[in-house]
Write a structure and sequence with these properties.
Elements lengths: L1 H26 L3 E2 L3 E7 L4 E6 L3 E8 L2 E7 L22 E4 L3 E5 L3 E6 L4 E6 L4 E4 L6 E4 L2 E7 L5 E4 L13 E4 L16 E2 L2 E6 L2 E7 L5 E5 L6 E6 L4 E8 L2 H12 L13 E2 L7 H13 L6 E4 L20 H10 L3 E6 L2 E3 L5 H9 L13 E3 L2 E5 L5 H9 L2 H6 L3 E4 L16 E2 L6 E2 H23 L6 E4 L2 E2 L7 E3 L7 H16 L5 E2 L1 E2 L8 H11 L6 E2 L15 H16 L1 H14 L4 E3 H4 L15 E3 L3 E3 L8 E6 L3 E4 L5 E3 L2 E6 L7 E4 L3 E4 L15 E4 L6 E8 L13 E9 L2 E6 L2 E6 L10
Parallel strand pairs: 15-31, 21-22, 21-35, 22-23, 23-27, 27-30, 30-32, 32-33, 34-35
Antiparallel strand pairs: 1-11, 2-3, 3-4, 4-5, 5-20, 6-7, 7-8, 8-9, 9-10, 11-12, 12-19, 13-16, 14-18, 16-17, 17-20, 18-19, 24-26, 25-26, 28-29, 36-37, 37-38, 38-43, 39-42, 40-41, 40-43, 44-45, 46-47, 47-48, 48-49
Helix pairs in contact: 3-4, 6-8, 10-11
Amino acid sequence: MKKTVLIKTTVFCLLSVFFTHSSIWATDLCQSVGNFKSVKTIGDGKSYELRAENAIVEITPYTPGMINIHFSKDTIRDRFSYAVVGKPLNEVNFNLKEEKDRLVFTSDSLKLIVRKNPLRFSFFTLNDVLINGDDEGFGTSWIGDQVSTYKKMLPGERFLGLGEKTGNLDRRGNGYENWNTDAFGYGTGTDPIYASIPFYIGVHDQISYGIFFDNSYKSHFNFGASQDRFSSFTAESGEMNYYFIYHSSIAKIIEDYTYLTGRIQMPALWSVGYQQCRYSYYPQEEVVSIAQTFRDKKIPCDVIYLDIHYMDQYKLFTWNPVHFTQPQKMLADLKKLNFHTTIIVDPGIKIEKGYAAYEDGLKNDIFVKYPDGTNYSGQVWPGWCNFADLTSEKGRRWWGNQFKGYIGDGIDGFWNDMNEIATWGQKLPQLMNFDYDGHPSTTMRARNVYGMQMARATYEGAKNLMGGRRPFVLTRAGFAGMQRYTAIWTGDNSSYDDHMLLGVRLVNSLGLSGVANAGYDIGGFMGNSSPQLFARWMSVAAFTPFMRGHSMINSRSCEPWAYGEEVEEISRNYIQLRYKLMPYLYSSFYESAQTGMPVARSLAINYTFDGNIYNGDYQNEFLCGHGILVCPTSTTRDLAKFYLPEGNWYDIYNDKAYSGKQELILSNPVNRLNVFTKGSSIITMQSPVQNAAEKPFDTLYVHVYNGTEKNSFVYYEDDGNTLLTKAVDFTDEQFHLTLSGKRLSSQKPKENQTVSSLLSNSSSTE
């Protein structure tokens, strides 16, 4: 009897285990959205809710060319976004026609066709040409908490952007991960690195589109890596929430994307100038000496940086009492030399009794916590630290107020570093709690946005304390939408040619992804640059949005004079050229603030369907603004190949004319970067200055290059320092320069005047 009972019990346990394991295995299988069930209008009547067997989907038009598709398994809970600030436009027409086997949504720019069984989404032009569509077998699906959308990959389709990603301009054949990482010494193929922007642009058959995946969990993008069937985007948790953007040009796609996620504020004019950094300049006498040397050598410069050694034992919001005994005097001396000072700011607050920032942070209860309510502590430069929860309004307000002392001392710029969050060991616990602005989350959701929120807190705090002046903020880590608060640099790069060229592609990719103000450490942060490499890097960087020389401790110094007289002269010439181009560069930033168009522009923006621009020899070429073509090359070649896209082009130095759509082999001397201007370009310049505070002559030089295209350029200037609000008194100047035939006209609001009538037949006219 006992034996029978024991046998029955054993069988029951085995069956229990079997069914339990079957249930677990089932959740690991791919679950699709299933078949269509119903559709109805929601909200203002322009949005729609679709129900399927295993999902609910909301469809919302934002602009005529941008539609939001938002999936959830049951109820859509996750509507909060740090990235999205744009609202659906009221005037968008968006109509539904239901048919037997499909739903047809139509806007003024595109059609969204939803197949009912199973539910699949495809986007078409108004004349029924496929733009992008779900993979017929997969569509959107879940594996446990992981959610993915699979898109049909079309023949010849290219993929661009995705922000700060290494690799080639065309990302087809590769996969990428978004997980902000302290990537010290990263290689030319390392992924991920510091920032995450889950936005890419697809290109095929004279058609371009963009997809922004608004999910801050760790995400994965596959553009045909290890398979040739689909492109896909995946998040390890959260909801499938993406924005589909279609326009006739990549420029318009970027415009819609930056309408959605925001655009840059006009930078302080001085921050567009050359900036000098070193890990580290100290004591304070050396800092002033470096600045004075720039002035003595007549090398233009506007900014000098202080790295971690300016602090007392690396503690934030302090000054080193040995090396910086009179910081206010040092800053005043730098101001007399027309230098602005930017300081490094890391997120860790040292755990130390009596340390003001730590005690105040405890008092205000602003630190990130474990689930049991204790403050998380991790080791960085000061030792064991707590970290402010900058995903909370309370934490950001506290952080911003801490800058009062620095700003009172005379600091104008703040360099946010180590904000991935980086800690020794590089294993940030996943279970930490973050406020996420009232949407409690863990590290898994908050990590990718922490750097952006640190930049936001720094920008907003400095802005509130600077009395109407524009703060400068630089960040290492970020997320989609970071451009509203900060510039970004590409982190701890290395001193070799391939890394110089990688930096160009990283900046161009960031520009494709809405981040208009970006740059890299000239000469390489790690290692020892050769004189030839430093000279070439300096010449290329003269045309990037953010221009900074920087190198690490125990490596070769990176001041322009550190490589001998020849390199010093080359550096001086190219930095001076940048300052002469300041009216053009500043106007290009104004365009970025208005439309999102980057300052450094991948040729994919203007020459999307010219296959030559994706060639490995030419993919590093870019436009600075609308009309200057920059051709970076390795320093190892005496001769180098270049490609001139469609149009007519002029050598920027001697006005020699070239026709476009051709490859060139030209000499590649270290003192002469190959740079061209496009026919019909309008380039505004000023007389030489040593810094942004120095006033140029009162003549604006307008160089107009002969061409066949009608062209226009918006020239913009203001005082370069104050916030452009009605509450602040400022002066600004704006006029449109329009080239038609050989006549250039200038038009201001309610005013029209001729700047120059007949132009010369070949190159440029002032």
